Amino acid sequence: MGLGRLLSGPLSASAVLVATAIGAAVIGVLYLVRLRRRRVVVSFAPLWLDAAGPRRTTTWARRLRDLLSFLLATALLALVVAATMDTRASTADADGRSLVVLIDRSASMSARVGATGVVGKVGKARSTSRLDAAKARATAIVDGLGPADRALVASFAADTVAEIGFESDGGRLRRAVAAVAPSEEPGDLPRALTFASAVLRGRPRPTVVLVSDGAFTEEARRAIPAGIDVRYAGVGQTGRREGGNVGIISFAARRVPADPSAVEAAVVAQNFGTRPAAVALEISAGAATVERVRLELGPGERRRHQLPNVFAADARLQARLLTADGKPLADGGDDELALDDTAFAVVPLLPRRRVLRVGGPNLYLDGALLSLGNTVTVDRLAPAAAEAQRARWPDYDLVIFDGVAPGPPPTQGRFLYLDAHGAGSPFAERGAVRDPVIGDVRRDHPLARQLDLSDVNISAARRLALAPGDVAVAGSFGVPLVIARERPGLRVAATSFDPRKSDLPMRPAFPLLIANALAWAPGRSADAAIDAPPALLTGASARPRDDLPEIAIAHAGFHQAGDMIVAANLGDVRESDTTPAAELDLGGHRLAPPDPPAWRGRVHLPTLALWLALALLLVECVTYHRRWTT
Amino acid sequence: MAGARAAETVPRPDGAPPRAGRFDERFLRRLESLVLTIRRSARMSAGLLRANRASKRVGAGLEFADHRDYAAGDDLRYLDWNLYGRLGRLALRLFQEEEDLLVEVLVDASASMGVGNPPKLDLALQIGAALAYVGLANLDRVALSPLGDDAAPALPPARGKGAILPILRFLDGVRAGGRVGLAAAVRAFLSRRRRRRRGLAIVISDFYDPAGHRAALDLLRHHRLEVVAIQVSAPQELAPEVHGDVELRDIETGESRELTVSPSVLAAYRRRHQTLLRDLEGYCRERAIPCYTVVSDQPFDAAVLRMFRAGGLLR
C-alpha cells in the first residue's frame, strides 16, 4: 500500500487492523521503555530521599497510574485509527444503490432564501439562493452514501447535464455538486427524469433524488419513471418566508403600423406574493431612461401596462422593476427573484419597401406615400412606360394603378387599383352608383385595420363584379367599394371609386388605407410588416431569420445573431412563481424524502474522533507528570 | 631521592599495569615540591613536625615531668636525693618520654568514594600519600588503613623516606567498593592496633554515613589519637545536574527509589548537603579537631598546602 493511497482516503478494514497492531506494539514498547526510568547512582541516597520528602504513591497506585496511562495511549491510537477508517463500513449495504442526484438549476432556483444574518465584508446581511441550499442538500446526500452506493450528480434546467459519472468517492461527488452553476432557463423535469431513467437502466436499486424547489407544471408532474425510486428533497421552504416576487412576465415593443417611426410597448408584470407590492417600472432605450411609471399590484395580480409611444432612440429596450424609490427590486428585501425584474425587447427596424405608382399626378396619393417616410421607395411611371416594364411588376411590394388599368390584368404580383376600370381592370364593371354610403366594413380584414370609413363622402362609384374568392372589404348596400382578391402569387386591392371624387384623401383613413395595402399585399399583416425580430426565450434554440444559424438562448438579454440583434427573456412564467413546494407529487404519487445518510447523525465521526484524541492528549499531558529528563 | 626514584611510574603490587594519573612521575615531583614548600614555612623550621616531639608518656626522657612516691622495684637511678634531703621522703623523678609520632592515615575506600571524575578516592589517596610523605620526611612512623568492607589490609607503620614507595604501591592498589559504616570501620581499625600508642589519626572520607560521623571520631579520640578530618566531595555531589524522572540508586546500599527531581528537590538536596558539612565542621570545631573540606577536582598539592597554611594539622 503506497503512501499516496494511505493519504488519499479512508483506510480499509485490513489496513486499519495492520495499523492498529503496529501502533499497539509501538505503544507497548514505548511504555516499557518509559517505565524503566533513567538510573542515577548517587553517593548518599538519604540526602536525596530526605529532600524528596515522603513517598507519595504506593506501588499499586503507581502501577495503576501506569496502566491507566497505557490505556489512555491505546485509546488515543484507537481514536486516531478510527478517524482514518471508513466509518460507513458499519452500515454497509450488501447491495448498493444507484443514485442519480438531480439538482434543479432552473431560473427559480436563483431565488433568494431569506437573509441568513451572516454579515459580509461590506456589513450587509448576505443571503443564499435556493441553488446554494440545493447544493448543500445534495452535498449532505452524497456524504451520506453507503459504501456500496454509487451516485451520479446531474443538474437540469431546459436540458440536463451530468456533472460526474457514477462515483462512490465523496470528494469527487462533492466537487461535482459544487460545480453546478445557476441557469436562467426553465426547468424541464420530464427531460431530466428521462435522462435519469436512461443512465439508471440496468443498474441495481435505481434511485433518483430530485433536489428542487418543486416549481413544475401539472403536465411536467404527470409521469413518473417506471421502476425507479424517485425521492424529493425540497429546498427553499425552510424558515419564515418574508417576501414574495414581482416579475415581468412579458415585454414586447413594436412600431406603430400607421406611424412606423413610433414605437409602442407593452409590459405585463405580476405580483406572485401574498402582499401588495408597489414597484416602479422603468423603460430604457440603450443607456437612457425613457419611461418610468409606478405600479401597485395586489397579491397575485397580473397587470398589462401599455406604453403607446415610447421614444426609442436605441433599438434595444429594457424594462426593469425597481422599488418605489428607484432601487433595484432585489435589494429592497421583498423580492426573491432578481432574474425576472428585467426584461428585454428589440424595436424592429423600419422596413424599406418599393412602390411603383402608375398614373398621372395625384398629390393626395403622393402625400399618402410621403407619410410613410423613408421606409418607402416610390417609382413613378406613366401607364405606357409601366406597360413596358410589366415584367418587373412582381419585384415591387406594391404597384398602384391610379385611375389606369393596363391590360391584360396581371396574374402575379401585388397591386392596388384606385378606381379600377377599363379593359385591363381585373374586375368587370356592371354599372355605376352615385353617392354610395359606406355601410359594410369587414373590420377583420387587414385592409380595414384601424380604418375609419364612416361618413366618407363619395360622389360616384363603379359597380364592380366580384369573382369567387373576392372580398368586399367595404361596401354600400351590396355594392363593393373596397375589394380584396387573393390568388396564388397574386394580391389585388381595389377601390371602385376615384378617391379624388370623394373626401377620403382628406381623411386619415386614406394614408392608412395605403399603408394597409402596402402591408397586406406582400402577404403579411400590417403588424407583421413592421414586426420585431422574434421574441426569444431562455432554454430554447431559435433561428431569428431563415438565413441565420440557429442559436441557443441560455441567458436573458440581448443576443447578436449575424447582423441581427434579438432579445431573450425568461422562458417560463412559472419560474417567477417562487412559492416553494414542500411536497411534490409525481404521477399521482407523493414523493418520499431521501433516505437518511448512512452515517446517522450530524456528527462527522472522523472529526469527532480526532477531537476526542486531542482532548485525551491534553488531559494526559496535564495529569501525568511529563518532564524533560536529562 | 624519592623524587629521583619516582621518575618511573609506581608499579602496582598486583602486577597490573600502572594506572596513570594517581601516582605517576608528575605526582612524585609535585610531592617533593610540596614537602620543600612546607619545610620553608616558619612553623616547619620551628620543628613542630619533628618526630622527637614530647609525648605525654612519662618515661626515660630528658625533660623533667613530675615526682611520685618510690615503690619497691623502682629504678634507684631516678630517686631525687635532693628532695629526700629536704623532705625526708623518697620520691622518684619522672621525665617526659620522647617518642616518634605515629601517623595513622585512614582512607575511606567505600564505594561512594569512587564517585566523581576523577573519583574522590584518587584525591583522598593522593592527600594521604602526601601527608605520609611529609610524615616520613620528618621521621615519623606512618601507617595506612583503608576503611571499608572490601578494603585491603592495613599497611603496617613504616619509618623513613625510603618507605614512601611501598606506601605508594599500597595506595595504588586501593579500590573503592563496598559499604562503610564509619564507626564500625574505626572500631575494626582500633582492634587491629597491637599497641595503644598515642598518635595522629588522619581520617580522609566523604563522611556519608547514615549513622553519622560522631561515633567514629569519638572512638579515635577516646583511644588517645589526635584526629584530623578531611572531607572529600565530588562536584556533582555539591551541585548535582539531575532532572526529571529518575531511578535513584545508592551506590553503597544498592537501595533504589523512583524520584522526580524538580528544582525544589534539587534545592532541598543542596540544603541537606550543606547541613551535613556544617554539622561535621561544627563538631570538629567544638573538639578542636582540624577539619578540612576538599573537592575532588582540585589538585592534591594545593589542597594539602591549604591545610598546612590553615594550621591545625601540625602542632
How does this structure look, described?
The complex is a heterodimer of chains A (630) and B (315). Chain A has 630 residues and is an alpha/beta fold. Chain A folds into four domains: 3-90 and 606-623, no CATH class; 94-241 and 580-597, von Willebrand factor, type A domain (Rossmann fold), CATH 3.40.50; 246-349 and 568-576, Sandwich (Immunoglobulin-like), CATH 2.60.40; 353-529, Class I glutamine amidotransferase (GATase) domain (Rossmann fold, 3-Layer(aba) Sandwich), CATH 3.40.50. Chain A is 23% helix and 31% strand. Chain A contains twelve helices and 32 strands. In chain A, strand 5 and strand 6 form a beta hairpin. The longest helix of chain A is centred in the N-terminal third of the chain and has 26 residues, at 59-84. Chain B is elongated and about 85 Å long. Chain B is α/β, with parallel strands linked by helices. The longest helix of chain B is centred in the last third of the chain and has 24 residues, at 263-286. In chain B, helix 2 (25-40) runs parallel beside helix 11, helix 5 runs antiparallel to helix 6 and helix 7 (182-192) runs parallel beside helix 8. In chain B, the strands form three sheets. Chain B has a six-stranded mixed beta sheet, with helices on both faces. A three-stranded antiparallel beta sheet of chain B has the order 1-3-2. Mean pLDDT of chain B is 80; it is low at 1-20 and 42-57. At the A-B interface, strand 1 and helix 3 of A face strand 9, strand 10 and helix 10 of B.
